[in-house]
Amino acid sequence: MILFFLGGIREYQAFYLSLREKWLKINFKYMKEITVQELKSMMDQNEEFQLIDVRETFEYEVSHLNGINIPLAGILIESDKLSKDRPVIIQCRSGKRSAQAVMLLEQQGFTNLSNLKGGILAWKEEIDPEIDVY
């Protein structure tokens, strides 16, 4: 009986993980993203926006794009620091954590968010090869 129960848990976990993966793919598909070239253009034109870096503080200290550092684990707690009346761009190292942050914040009612596609790695690759990344 215990083996059946354990098998049931394993099947449930596999089923849950497959559903979660499908849900994430659907949400990533419809998430608003901007490229590093678009971000650079916004910076160069002095457009009004807010940049939030959801990497850990030690990562931010290595290199950053002058955004506000709010690590992903605290993004909901510190969501009051995010603008609601101008575009907010969320960035991380590669775009994955920032995508998670966008999804979490959108569930809280934010509608002005964009994920920086490729994160600071894309920035190094396409904009500033001299920036330090890890």
From TrEMBL:
Residues 45-132 form the Rhodanese domain. It comes from the Bacteria. SUPFAM superfamilies: Rhodanese/Cell cycle control phosphatase (SSF52821). CDD domains: RHOD. Pfam families: Rhodanese. InterPro entries: GlpE_sulfurtransferase (IPR050229), Rhodanese-like_dom (IPR001763), Rhodanese-like_dom_sf (IPR036873). This is Rhodanese domain-containing protein.
